[in-house]
């Protein structure tokens, strides 16, 4: 059996969107040595897929590429019932009028990139050219008709008077499908979970408790965001309230549809069947 190096690294998205899940989470209180590993989504994705990181939030699309290798932790996601506020398309024309022009993509999130492709192809029957660039709005718009930004780069650009039309992809998805969109999930490597099932369950429970405590009182999270990112209290209150951190039946339906469309467009080479970690999973692993 493979030995896993301790302390165990528990992934954390470097952006603000998962702060409520971690604000009251203390890795030192877990029963086994563990530490928070904060990184960009692309690096967390790579760590999970390359098996250098075993329990982490990852982009939904990255999970989908190797879904059979991972359990999803229950009751945890970064989702949006409507607008998400941090996955934004900046353009000179409305999205429906972009035609087959050029779209500059941020190079930091496969989930958002493929969500945009699904929306443009399936909803608007558009087939633009895509180019990948660093997330600098001015430079992207010099070479393209529209630019996709995510995370804190999108938030910062949206706070400026750019003159561009700003399309929120979470709102686009909801308007089109009537469902929420899940941008990130918490995944655990099945081999790791088989070796340390109690630790996985304990970590999942503590993350959910932290999330629930943050949602009950967002003020500490908002204050941290103001200190580190600027902006006023009302902005951050609205930002965190429009995100959704559960992963219930409705969120699973929305993500299943996303995976269905990704498979139909050959963005994924297989159908995705999501498997959630539960107490019954723990029992099966121990048998």
Major beta sheet summary = 5 strands, mixed
By DSSP (H or I, 4+ residues per run), the number of helices equals 13
Structural class call reads: alpha/beta
The overall pLDDT, averaged over residues, is: 92
Query: What is the third-level CATH name, the topology of the largest domain?
Result: D-Maltodextrin-Binding Protein, domain 2
Q: Unreliable stretches, pLDDT < 50, 5 or more residues?
A: none
Q: How many discrete domains?
A: 2
Described by the principal axes of the CA atoms, the overall outline is: globular
CATH hierarchy, class of the largest domain: Alpha Beta
**CATH superfamily heading of the largest domain:** Periplasmic binding protein-like II
Could you spell the SSE succession in H and E letters?
A: EHEHEHEEEHEHEHEHEHHHHEHH
- State the end-to-end CA separation: 16 Å
DSSP, total strands: 11
Rg to the nearest angstrom?
19 Å
Relevant terms:
single chain, 287 residues, alpha/beta, D-Maltodextrin-Binding Protein, domain 2, 2 domains, five-stranded mixed β-sheet, four-stranded antiparallel β-sheet, 11 strands
